[in-house]
Amino acid sequence: MKEELLKLSHWHMKSAGHGTLTDINLLLRAGECVSVSGSENSGRKLLAEMFDGKGVFVSGEAWVYGQRITDFHPQKLERIGVFYLGNDPAFMDCMDLAENFFLMRRSSHNKILLNNRAVHLRTAQVLQDFAMRYEVTSQTSKLHHLDRLLLSIVRAVDQGAQLIVLDDMTKGLNVPQIHRLLELLSLVKERGIALMIADNWFNWFEPLSDCILLCQDGRIERKIYDQTSPRSRALLQEWMQDTKPEAKTDTAKPKAETITLTLEYAGVSLPLHFEAGSAVLLSSYDEQVLHGCWQSLTQEKSRCTLQIGGKTLPLRGLADLRKHRIAVWDGTAEPPALQENLTLQENILLPSMQRISRCGFFEMAAKRVFSDREFWQDRLPIKTEPDSVKTARVLADRWLFFHPRVLFVYNVFSSSDYTVRRILQQFVQDLCARGTTVVLLETADHSCRSFVNAEISL
Q1: What is the 3-state composition of the chain as percent helix, strand, coil, each rounded to the nearest 5?
Q2: In terms of Cα–Cα distance, which of 216, 303, 261, 325 is closest to 456?
Q3: pLDDT tens per residue, range 377-433
Q4: What is the pTM for the complete model shown?
Q5: Across 53-184, where does the E strand assignment appear?
Q6: Do residues 408 and 297 touch, judged by C-beta distance below 8 A?
């Protein structure tokens, strides 16, 4: 029987950026490969990044080689043979390839002098074992992105890795490059080294995988061991297939005006058409596309345009957007969007203060604003609520009162837990009822499909 390498029992972690992990049970043996599938904030990312020391432990137990651990500091993990590799591996560009291999070795303090020739000979032998043709004296600064990824894997093996956690390694790679990555991982697995692969494109790793974990909302929804069975194939097909929202028609409702949003990504213009006053989900299986479109939309010299009612509005940065009552809500923004030196009510009124009082004395007007119980109902935040819920309520109330013509939302749902998503869903529906168009760019798009009016794939 294969040696038990990693075991997680009722594991629970949380992270500000990538949601939570809840009740994770996982067993990984030497020489096995586990592929983790799910959207950016399904828990897939956090499950990989916890081996990089990220995330906050809540409860549960973890064992490596039968030894219970609670500290996932990368240096401590590497001492017991667990290596985390992201999409941007670290290399010292001032040194050649062999020196980088030697530099990353854990010192046993039994060498006083550095044998430069031995360093290069050893590195050449390691590369030869994996059929990799690189000059050991070549400068790492001239290496391609794929070369760095491949060499980081070989370097981990040379350091004594028994488990390698790979996080989004296919990002930025084309099809031939992915095949080269798969060939190397196959050789690594044949050596009895375990792999945990968390990637957007998990289907590439199906031939390598002994088990596929389907993650959603911080939980493992299903574990698939036999990928060749008809039932498993149907389940994976369903998992990969986008679920479209049902069309909503109302014959009594007059047709709304059409809005045309022209986004730019990688030099390509993407004209998108949708109805005003609706919730629209812009989705892509590649998170880089959503991120690129968001950057293009919010940068100061943006080439994006918005056409409403026959009038074209150029979007030249956040200040220009707000002039036309177009708002943006970035769920990944740092620092937090709340101003700690202001009260909760003042945080809500922040974008609207000039509108309710042009002279700067807004206190009297603010009292009248918050006395309107018919408008606010039970929406206003309570100081005793958890910080995540309180922040979500404040920001939702801010844009509800500001009443923008269009609100662009980026990864707000994706970076929130289940409770906050329920609040945000009601907020989007209330905004649309007031005539605001809400455009959602979400990596965790499954959490938005149930309430949006339309979905556009990028």
Answers
A1: 35, 25, 40
A2: 261
A3: 667 777 777 777 888 888 888 888 888 889 999 988 887 777 888 888 888 988 898
A4: 0.56
A5: 56-64, 67-68, 82-85, 163-167
A6: yes
How large is the greatest C-alpha to C-alpha distance in the chain, in angstroms? 85
The number of helices, as runs of H, and strands, as runs of E, in the chain is 15, 19
What CA–CA distance (Å, rounded) separates 239 from 38? 9
Tokens 């109805």 correspond to what residue? 275
What is the pLDDT averaged over residues 104-116?
56
Q: Are 197 and 34 in contact (CB under 8 A)?
A: yes
DSSP 8-75: EEEEEEEETTTEEEEEEEEEEETT-EEEEE--IIIIIHHHHHGGGT-SEEEEEEEEETTEE-----HH
Rounded distance between C-alpha atoms, residue 45 and residue 167, angstroms: 7
For 32, residues 6+ apart whose C-beta sits below 8 A from its C-beta are 2, 5, 194, 195, 210, 211
Indicate the Cα dihedral angle 297, 298, 304, 305, nearest 10°. Answer: 110
Torsion, Cα of 29, 35, 39, 43 (10° steps): 0
Helix (H, G, I), strand (E, B) or coil at 256: coil
Q: Which whole-number Å values give the CA distances from 46 to 218, 222, 231, in the listed order?
A: 9, 17, 28
d(CA 252, CA 132): 67
The CB density around residue 358, as the number of other CB atoms within 10 Å, is: 9
Angle between helix 145-158 and 175-190 (nearest 10) = 10
Report d(CA 237, CA 32) in Å as an integer: 23
Q: Which stretches within 268-312 are classed as H helix? A: 287-298
Tens digits of per-residue pLDDT, 337-373?
677 777 777 777 777 776 666 665 667 777 777 777 7
DSSP for 403-438, written as a single string: --SEEEEESTTTTS-HHHHHHHHHHHHHHHHTT-EE
Six-digit token string for 72: 């996932």
Distance from CA of residue 357 to its chain's centroid? 40
Distances from the Cα of 90 to the Cαs of 55, 84, 151, 376, in angstroms? 21, 11, 11, 51
- Single out the residue of 409, 405, 371, 369 nearest to residue 392, CA to CA: 409
Q: Which residues pair with 408 in a beta bridge?
A: 328, 439
Do residues 271 and 260 make contact, with C-beta atoms less than 8 angstroms apart? yes
The residues, any chain, with a CB within 8 Å of residue 121's CB and separated by 6 or more, are none
Amino acid at 285: Y
